[in-house]
């Protein structure tokens, strides 16, 4: 008999309420024992109940709800108890359930059971964690779309098409006297090419997915004392970095996450770039160069109050770049006609224009998001790359007139890779990696 699991499903620490969850065949029996003579409330009806210790003394009083499987989150019988949010009282309720036969849940085990019992596919299970960790409205929207099964349904349609193509091809293998005529071969290639194009469209959302989940790696770059730390502080809305007229104050990188019009920016404040004899400052400048090579977006800050000079160094190719001209209230005449967004980190002048430019440059705001509201993660990306490569080999083999057995092998590999996305073909290693990142209680 599968074990019945229990865990605290609310955040650790003191709060107004806490939630403890039971799931498994014995969930109702264990909960009934914990209530003593009090009966369980009817299914899906919240009832005020007391949890008692072994001697009959009350541990806590709260609302208890029974969800009977398979119409529950996990697909099994689930009991949830909402009690007072103290650390000690919550722990005591959980201890009592464990005394009565429940076992502690592993991280993500409730959601893993939902997947194993067919309540969620693997993309939906992953979306649960994306939903919990969403830091912006766009990330929330993407997670909700995936939780509704949009990505899983797309992959299932692909899988059905590939399965049909594989079956058609293997029919020729079963009847070797029948050669694949050119028209049939071309038709198969057209079908496979269409599926390859769909995979390409999903792969194109991988960078968006990484940005929504991790943030746009945004490096604030420039010479010393041009206002880099002031820019960081104003974007955050509070003082995070030390601001000083003394050059070389920032010697290490500082990272913070900010929500800019629904786009998560992972801001990296760096040491000012200049020639220096100070060993520690030189190390900070070397770290700045390293950050630039990994940047998605570079905010180069220049000082308008100083005479114009060329940028301190060549910027790496690939990253998007915004020139910010700080201290707009005291511009030196040599900056006339020079391109850039004129801002003041002291007054906030020009920040709306800067935000608009960044939103357009990244094309990740609501106006540009369009139909790409589901963005694949790194695991989906690896599966799609594998599936697409196998399809390409299959198409080349078909066009080259190779044996249908070889084409079928590549098609089956592509079919397997697409199935891995939604968990149609699963392995313990994949499941362990995904659900190991969840919090206990989810």
How would you characterize the overall build of this protein?
- It is built from 15 helices and 12 strands.
- The protein has 442 residues and is an alpha/beta fold.
- The chain has 3 domains: 5-105, Probable tRNA modification gtpase trme, domain 1 (Gyrase A, domain 2), CATH 3.30.1360.120; 124-205 and 376-435, Up-down Bundle (Four Helix Bundle (Hemerythrin (Met), subunit A)), CATH 1.20.120; 213-369, 3-Layer(aba) Sandwich (Rossmann fold), CATH 3.40.50.300.
- The strands form 2 sheets. It has a 6-stranded mixed β-sheet. It has a 6-stranded mixed β-sheet with strand order 8-9-7-10-11-12, with helices on both faces.
- Helix 6 (150-174) packs antiparallel against helix 14 (404-422), helix 7 packs antiparallel against helix 13 (378-399) and helix 13 runs antiparallel to helix 14.
- The radius of gyration is 29 Å and the shape is flat.
- The protein starts with a strand and ends in a 7-residue tail after the last helix.
């Amino acid at each position: 008999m599968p074990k019945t699991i229990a865990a605290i499903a609310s955040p650790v620490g003191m709060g107004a309420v806490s939630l403890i969850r039971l799931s498994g065949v014995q969930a109702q029996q264990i909960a009934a024992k914990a209530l003593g003579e009090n009966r369980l409330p009817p299914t899906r009806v919240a009832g005020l109940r007391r949890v008692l210790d072994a001697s009959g003394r009350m541990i806590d009083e709260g609302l208890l709800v029974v969800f009977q499987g398979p119409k529950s989150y996990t697909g099994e019988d689930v009991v949830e108890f909402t009690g007072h949010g103290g650390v000690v009282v919550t722990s005591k309720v959980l201890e009592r359930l464990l005394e009565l036969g429940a076992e502690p849940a592993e991280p993500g085990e409730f959601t893993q059971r939902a997947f194993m019992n067919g309540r969620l596919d693997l993309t939906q299970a992953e979306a649960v964690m994306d939903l919990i960790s969403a830091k912006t409205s766009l990330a929330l929207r993407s997670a909700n779309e995936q939780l509704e099964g949009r990505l899983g349904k797309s992959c299932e349609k692909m899988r059905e098409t590939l399965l049909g193509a594989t079956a058609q091809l293997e029919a020729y293998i079963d009847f070797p006297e029948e050669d694949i005529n050119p028209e049939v071969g071309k038709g198969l290639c057209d079908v496979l090419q269409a599926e390859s194009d769909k995979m390409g469209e999903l792969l194109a959302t991988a960078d968006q997915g990484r940005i929504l989940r991790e943030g746009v790696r945004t490096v604030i770059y420039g010479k010393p004392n041009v206002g880099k730390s002031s820019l960081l502080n104003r974007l955050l809305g509070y003082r995070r970095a030390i601001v000083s007229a003394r050059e070389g104050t920032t010697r290490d990188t500082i990272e913070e996450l900010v929500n800019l019009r629904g786009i998560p920016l992972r801001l990296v404040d760096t040491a000012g770039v200049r020639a220096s004899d100070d060993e520690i400052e030189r190390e900070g400048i070397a770290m700045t160069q390293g950050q630039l090579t990994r940047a998605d977006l570079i905010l180069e800050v220049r000082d308008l109050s100083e005479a114009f000079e060329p940028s301190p160094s060549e910027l790496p190719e690939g990253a998007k770049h915004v020139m910010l001209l700080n201290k707009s209230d005291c511009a030196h005449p040599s900056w006339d006609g020079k391109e850039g967004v004129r801002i003041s980190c002291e007054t906030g002048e020009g920040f709306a224009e800067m935000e608009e430019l960044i939103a357009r440059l990244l094309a990740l705001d609501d106006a540009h998001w369009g139909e790409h509201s589901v963005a694949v993660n790194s695991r989906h990306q690896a599966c799609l790359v594998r599936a697409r490569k196998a399809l390409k080999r299959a198409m080349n083999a078909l066009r080259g007139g190779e044996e249908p057995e070889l084409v079928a092998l590549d098609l089956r590999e592509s079919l397997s890779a697409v199935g891995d996305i939604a968990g149609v073909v699963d392995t313990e290693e994949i499941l362990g990696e995904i659900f190991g990142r969840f919090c206990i209680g989810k």
